[in-house]
Design brief:
Layout: E1 4-13, E2 18-20, H1 21-25, H2 32-39, E3 43-45, H3 53-68, E4 77-81, H4 92-100, E5 106-110, H5 116-129, E6 135-142, H6 153-156, E7 162-171, E8 176-184, E9 192-193, H7 205-209, E10 216-217, H8 219-240, E11 250-253, H9 258-268, H10 279-282, H11 289-299, E12 308-315, E13 319-326, H12 344-372
Parallel strand pairs: 4-5, 4-6, 11-12
Antiparallel strand pairs: 1-7, 2-3, 6-7, 8-13, 9-10, 12-13
Helix pairs in contact: 3-4, 8-9
Bound molecules: oxa(dethia)-CoA (UT7).
Oxa(dethia)-CoA binds near residues 39, 217 and 226.
Length: about 375
């Protein structure tokens, strides 16, 4: 039997707090007019205390499971693409695995900056088509506001927080993920980075004093790189899928800058009516931007089952990539389901108790084995 990886569920998690351009103009030397004309961004959502990459991701994952109609114990794999993980380790994916009660899933983080969601979807799709797994959740989740220098007007105007999730499921029906392109060029690593906090420059009072835990970016260089690779990657993904540009219903690009998207669309000769853009309301949410834009386009009725979509992204690394998919929607299934999202409060209580029981069992085992040792 042929196996295809279909996108059958979707969800988002977005902080309530909104930071407008006018708010920013009170913090740094900038203006709404400059930000809108240079980037297209009008506002962004910012995580408040208590909101984290895992909490936004959990919300998105539960919505996606609800749409797909999958139970937590059906999930085999959770991949979280993020550049703002909660910790160096454990992975944010593991924290989300625990919070959604996916007791049979393997979970790991993937680091490919803003391109990460495309890489993660490709990894999950490959695992499904190879027969290794049946169901995966792929997330793009960020709280990059915690790595932004709020005194640097060149970067603080760009970024926002949020998370998006897709459920990928196996099916014998042709469709789903059709092709993918993944590329990297580490020679451009210094163009967009958070220099300290890793093993090369561990956190110290000096690194904090020097502002090395903040995002540093050469905006102009990243702009030039982005417009070049988006066209290339999109064309490659379409060709690999055996399609032509005219077959494409939607291009859903990484939402970094409206001018980048328009330049790439112009070079592709793709009308902007076929390009999904929502960065005016979210800013650049890095790897979460593609699923956030997709879910909005599904919810407002633009993206429909059967549509051919090309997702295209670029970012730090440098990394870039594209992925073509035939949009599916939920797979009809006769099995009765227990959808956690419907019983959200009850389900959250259940997963917390489950997590506490697991911790307690480990504690008791530790006491027993500790005494024996
Ligand atoms: O996910 C990937 C993440 N990164 C990106 O996608 C970034 C890609 N690059 C960009 O989006 C653009 O390069 C920026 C939006 C970052 C900057 O736009 P730009 O048109 O490339 O501006 P620029 O860097 O060439 O700066 C033009 C002027 C400079 O002043 P001078 O030197 O000409 O006097 C900047 O100092 O604008 C000034 N400027 C600002 N002015 C008001 C830079 N930031 C601001 C600001 N408000 N926020």
């Amino acid at each position: 039997m042929n196996r295809y990886a279909h996108i059958t569920g979707w969800g988002i998690g977005v902080p309530e707090k909104i930071l407008t351009n006018d708010d920013l103009a009170q913090m740094v030397d900038t203006s709404d007019e400059w930000i809108v004309s240079r980037t297209g961004i009008r506002q962004r959502h910012i995580a408040e205390e208590g909101e984290t990459t895992a909490s936004l991701g959990t919300e998105a994952a539960l919505q996606a499971m609800e749409v797909a109609g999958v139970n937590p114990n059906e999930i085999d794999l959770i991949i979280v693409s993020t550049s703002s993980p909660e910790h160096v380790f454990p992975s944010t994916a593991s924290l989300i695995q625990d919070r959604i009660g996916a007791s049979k899933a393997g979970a790991f983080d993937l680091s490919a900056a803003c391109t990460g969601f495309i890489f993660a979807m490709n990894m999950a799709a490959q695992a499904i088509t190879s027969g290794s797994i049946n169901t995966a959740i792929v997330l793009g989740a960020e709280t990059l506001s915690r790595f932004v220098n709020w005194e640097d007007r060149e970067t603080c105007i760009l970024f926002g927080d949020g998370a998006g999730a897709f459920v990928l499921q196996t099916s014998a029906d042709p469709g789903g993920v059709l092709s993918s392109v993944m590329r990297s060029d580490g020679s451009g690593g210094d163009l967009l980075s958070v220099p300290a906090g890793g093993s090369k420059r561990p956190a110290s009072s000096q690194t904090v004093q020097d502002g090395l835990h903040f995002i540093q970016m050469n905006g102009r260089e990243v702009f030039r790189f982005a417009t070049r690779v988006m066209k290339q990657a999109t064309e490659e993904a379409i060709e690999q899928a055996g399609m032509i540009l005219d077959d494409v219903n939607w291009v859903i690009p990484h939402q970094a800058n409206r001018r980048i998207i328009e330049t790439a669309a112009r070079r592709l000769k793709m009308p902007m009516e076929k390009v999904v853009v929502n960065l005016d309301r979210y800013g650049n949410t890095s790897t979460a931007s593609i699923p956030l834009a997709t879910v909005e386009a599904i919810r407002d009725g633009r993206v429909k089952p059967g549509d051919l979509i090309v997702f295209v992204g670029f970012g730090a690394g440098l990394t870039w990539g594209a992925l073509a998919a035939r949009w599916t929607g939920p797979i009809p299934d006769e099995k009765p389901k227990v959808w956690p999202y419907r019983f959200y409060t009850l389900y959250q209580a259940y997963v917390r108790v489950r997590s506490l029981i697991l911790r307690f069992v480990r504690f008791v085992e530790g006491v027993i084995w500790g005494k024996r040792g």
